[in-house]
């Protein structure tokens, strides 16, 4: 076998499959986008035709996926340094940066236009703004410039319920912004907990994560502060148009657990973490996933129960 | 190196082509369904009809 044929064989091995292109869209993030946008759409006080609702959620998800592909295109250099991201399609050599850029741009245009046609122009424009915010404001500009990157990036991830609400109603009101704030305030403690036990990743990539710029002690305090603010907001949301007794019960239990976890994180030092391999931080991170899912689940339950006279106050 | 019919590459490319084909077909069905819903909704009016009313 000649050198040329060996190289050709390796090139074929690296050729992307359908799954590699799908992985560019960050399916896990897309699942969060789908869920929160669906809750925004169904919690709105306006009925939506199932086909239009399905299209709206699908194109919001595709828009989220497109911004994920554009994020991977821009961050390819740091993705190959970080353990958590070096298996992504670009650093793994499966997909080229140009392909990711093309896919991201094409899907961005498609999702925005189709959402505008399926739901309304306001929803399409808001999706376009969300993609712009995540890709340009967060990924290109602020992610590598400020340790508050996670706080700002959280805003982009928090827009889907607002877009879902606008897709249903064509207008804006306070309730979707409460859902926005819920995700927005949840993101920092969620990611900073991850940063505490994935420290070397961000160090190696030179991303100014709070753990790197302000130290781990300050990060722990930040987690607690954001968790307190989040708890006030989450429980307060129970008394809005999207809340109700079920939501209040869920919020009280989960926020008590979340506050307890944040308090434990604040009281720990690095020696404790080395001994138990960040057990408390890891469990706080897992709880944060459940926290958001159940809060939005409770909002959805309240909305679905309303036609039977059970949801809301 | 000769590429045999059963080469793994063929399977992968076939999977990619089928995936894109299914997505395109699904998109056509989706646009069709969306169009049907839009034109059969009570609020739908042809652009010309709107012009005449104005």
Structure overview:
The complex is a heterodimer of chains A (313) and B (54). With 313 residues, chain A is mainly α. Chain A is built from 16 helices and no strands. Chain A has helices at residues 3-13, 18-23, 27-43, 50-74, 76-79, 97-118, 121-142, 149-158, 160-169, 174-197, 199-205, 210-213, 215-237, 245-267, 270-276, 279-305. The longest helix of chain A has 27 residues, at 279-305. The longest helix of chain B has 33 residues, at 8-40. Chain B has helices at 8-40, 47-53. In chain B, 74% of the residues lie in helices and 0% in strands. Chain B is built from 2 helices and no strands. The model of chain B has no long low-confidence stretch (mean pLDDT 81). Chain B is rod-shaped.
Question: What is the structure about, briefly put?
Answer:
The complex is a heterodimer of chains A (313) and B (54). Chain A has 313 residues and is mainly alpha-helical.
Observed structural traits:
heterodimer, A: about 325 residues, mainly alpha, 16 helices, about 75% helix, flat, B: about 55 residues, rod-shaped
Low-confidence stretches of chain B: none
Share in helix of chain A: over 70%
Q: Shape of chain A, please?
A: flat
Percent of residues in β-strands of chain B: under 5%
Query: How many individual helices of chain B?
Result: 2
What is the averaged pLDDT score of chain A?
92
Q: Specify Rg of chain B, calculated over alpha carbons.
A: 22 Å
Q: Round the mean pLDDT of chain B to the nearest integer and report it.
A: 81
